[in-house]
Design a protein that fits this description.
Layout: H1 2-26, H2 33-50, H3 53-79, H4 85-89, H5 93-102, H6 104-119, H7 135-150, H8 153-163, E1 192-198, H9 208-211, H10 217-223, E2 227-232, H11 241-250, H12 280-286, E3 290-295, H13 304-310, E4 315-317, H14 319-322, H15 339-353, E5 360-365, H16 389-411, E6 415-421, H17 431-436, E7 443-448, E8 455-457, H18 466-473, E9 481-482, E10 485-486, E11 513-517, E12 520-526, E13 529-532, E14 535-538, E15 550-555, E16 561-567, H19 570-576, E17 581-586, H20 589-595, E18 604-608, E19 616-619, E20 625-627, H21 629-634
Parallel strand pairs: 1-5, 1-6, 2-8, 3-4, 3-5, 11-20
Antiparallel strand pairs: 2-7, 6-7, 9-10, 11-12, 12-13, 13-14, 15-16, 15-17, 17-18, 18-19
Helix pairs in contact: 1-2, 1-3, 2-3, 2-7, 3-6, 3-8, 10-16, 15-16
Length: about 650
């Protein structure tokens, strides 16, 4: 009897730990989770042996922790990382239903596993074990309980996400920048646009030094005939398809409130996503462009159809539009239609659009390179020996994309074609190599068009620069900079204007502040951006805030902006701030204790000259407006 009971408890422990072991294989950084898994299984078994109300506790602990284990395992399976904003953003009803269908085997397998594990304790035996009440087992179980909590990865991952949560305004409903009006400009010979978002087809796959071969040789060769932007970087709030599309089309990060607190604020459930913003489709529609979107997946996934409809796109086509039209209804993937079918339908649509009546913008979203193993089109038959499914899918997409781009360029002479990888790849069969070269990973962005001279542009860029850059290619002059982006054809990305270190010196939950000289605003900060002389640039980076940091802007004697300075050392800052008029924000303890009167604070703003009586420094939350004209006069400077 004892042997059978011991076997039952051991079997339960193995079953409980099994999904944890599988999840850890996706990211070895979570190996400590195995300790917690063994500890939880031991505590549940011990509680069951005690009998009585302890068994209710055992059942609750078993079901709740195993469910949380599956949630974190799902995040690691799909993304390769733990809980984050994009994981929770995809839990709205329609998006979850689509993902459930795409991962049906995994989903229903996990569901069956969880239900089975919840009833497993009932086979552990009903007889109360007297040994379980002895002092030694109790002491061991207390230690196991401590280990279970201390190393419980779902709790630690969730706590890390909450504590590092982005407290900026939710751009999905309340953009952090001013509402933008579109003033139509006169375009001479407007060019049409074909924009392709290539599902996670990052430029890293072309690196022979990383993979030993170029997985996209055709696209690599094709990029040499256009403008290739080879230093495109992924930043916060752009790591999934919908956040990438918003970032690339609106030059603005997509942020939502905590989904479990404001489920109706997740993008698919918002009536008008990202309101009061001028995005790529809005600008083109306002200038008479016919705007069309075609994607192989359902439009409802993550609310992309709702976003596009709210921002200038008049024709939207997704899986539900295409699947009934397939000659072979079985020729599809779990996510929708294959890319070879999408490109065939897109060429037909282009024939209809290219009638010369008005310019058009056709946006495509591919699917075949979706993680974790890719979904290669059936028209790709030649497969290299030893190639993984993901490598085969990438090589297949290379052939299909390059062929489609060549077709468009040869058929339609006055069309600008832009290829952009929507985001860096999530966990897939090549993710181990990608993760080892994390600092070298780059997005793919290439543009071809009439009168485009082949060149390589090495400026650092982000998703936010895509919209202004594309509009520059199309001949627009009024959108060379917008929100957090700028045309990389002409200038550096605003995201990096402060330098990567300086961009982290102001806290994300910064209240609105306005620093004025004679009623003219010279410095304004609200949420994630600052405005100087009418120009708005980014001043924060992914919720980080440097400890003891000083961030300042220098003005000359005429009130003209000169440059930026940031420092974690008060002494170093004061040495460099010996001349000029300075306006800034400080989280530096030494600075605030020295210059902020009455009550030094964690966060303060200041304006004036150091070493002069005209310096003003006050706690940030005391006032939201400060006229620094008197400080300028006190420094002997002219008012603007």
């Amino acid at each position: 009897m004892r042997r059978s009971a011991a076997f039952a408890h051991a079997t339960y422990g193995v079953l409980y730990v099994a999904p944890i072991a599988a999840a850890v294989s996706f990211n070895l950084a979570y190996a400590y989770w195995l300790v917690s898994g063994v500890a939880v299984a031991a505590v549940v078994s011990w509680l069951w042996q005690l009998g009585g109300w302890h068994r209710v506790t055992a059942l609750v602990a078993n079901c709740t922790t195993s469910f949380a284990n599956l949630l974190l395992a799902a995040s690691l399976y799909v993304q390769g990382v733990g809980f984050n904003a994009q994981f929770f953003y995809h839990l709205d009803g329609e998006t979850f239903a689509i993902a459930r269908q795409a991962y049906s085997v995994v989903f229903f397998g996990a569901w069956a596993y969880w239900l089975g594990l919840c009833v497993v304790p009932f086979v552990l035996g009903w007889r109360k074990a007297n040994w379980a009440e002895r002092q030694l087992p109790r002491g061991c179980m207390v230690l196991a309980g401590i280990a279970a909590i201390a190393a419980y990865a779902p709790l630690l991952s969730f706590a890390s996400f909450v504590l590092s949560a982005d407290h900026q305004p939710a751009t999905v409903r309340e953009p952090g920048t001013h509402a933008v009006a579109i003033e139509p400009e006169a375009l001479q010979d407007p060019k049409s646009l074909v924009l392709i978002f290539a599902e996670s087809l990052e430029a890293t796959y072309s690196r022979r030094d990383i993979f030993g071969d170029d997985f996209t040789p055709r696209l690599t060769a094709l990029a040499k005939h256009g403008v290739d932007f080879d230093d495109m970087r992924q930043v916060g709030h752009t790591g999934s398809t919908i956040t990438a599309m918003v970032g690339a089309m609106c030059a603005l990060p997509l942020r939502s409130p905590m989904p479990w607190q404001h489920l109706n604020s997740v993008l698919p459930n918002v009536a008008v996503p990202v309101p009061d913003q001028a995005c790529l489709g809005d600008v083109l529609a306002a200038h008479g462009y016919r705007t069309v979107f075609m994607g192989g997946a359902p439009l409802g996934f993550a609310g992309k159809g709702k976003f596009l409809a709210a921002h200038g796109f008049t024709e939207l086509y997704g899986a539900s539009n295409f699947l009934p039209r397939l000659e072979d209804p079985d020729y599809r993937s779990a996510w929708g239609i294959h890319d070879d079918t999408l490109f065939e339908l897109a060429l037909r649509k282009l024939d209809a659009l290219a009638d010369g009546v008005s310019p058009f913008a056709l946006t495509l979203l591919t699917l075949d390179t979706h993680h974790p193993s890719g979904l290669p089109s059936g028209s790709c038959t030649s497969r290299r020996r030893g190639a993984s499914d993901m490598e085969f899918s990438i090589r297949c997409s290379d052939r299909l994309l390059s062929g489609f781009i060549d077709d468009v360029r040869s058929r339609y002479a006055d069309v600008v074609v832009a290829l952009f990888s929507d985001h860096l790849a999530h966990r897939n069969e090549l993710f181990g190599t990608l993760r080892r070269h994390g600092n070298s990973r780059r997005l793919r962005f290439s543009v071809w068009g009439p009168d485009v001279e082949p060149t390589r542009i090495g400026r650092k860029g982000t998703h936010f620069d895509v919209m202004p850059t594309i509009l520059d290619f199309l001949g627009f002059e009024g959108w060379l900079s917008h929100n957090f982006g700028a045309s990389l054809l002409r200038t550096d990305s605003p995201w990096f204007a402060l330098g990567e270190k300086a961009a982290t010196t102001i806290t994300q939950d910064l209240p609105d502040i306005r620093l004025e000289m004679s009623s003219q605003v010279v410095f304004k900060a609200d949420g994630p951006s600052i405005e100087i002389g009418g120009q708005r640039i980014l001043a924060t980076n992914e919720g980080l805030a440097l400890t003891n940091a000083i961030f300042a802007m220098k003005f000359d004697a005429r009130g003209n902006f000169v440059g930026f300075r940031d420092s974690e050392s008060l002494e170093d800052f004061l040495r460099e701030a010996s001349d000029g008029f300075w306006v800034g924000v400080s989280t530096n303890d030494g600075f605030n204790r020295r210059f902020v009167a009455d009550e030094p604070s964690k966060l303060a703003f200041f304006g004036g000259c150091f070493g002069a009586a005209g310096l003003i420094a006050e706690p940030l939350w005391w006032r939201d407006k400060l006229d620094v004209s008197s400080a300028m006069v006190g420094c002997g400077f002219e008012q603007p």
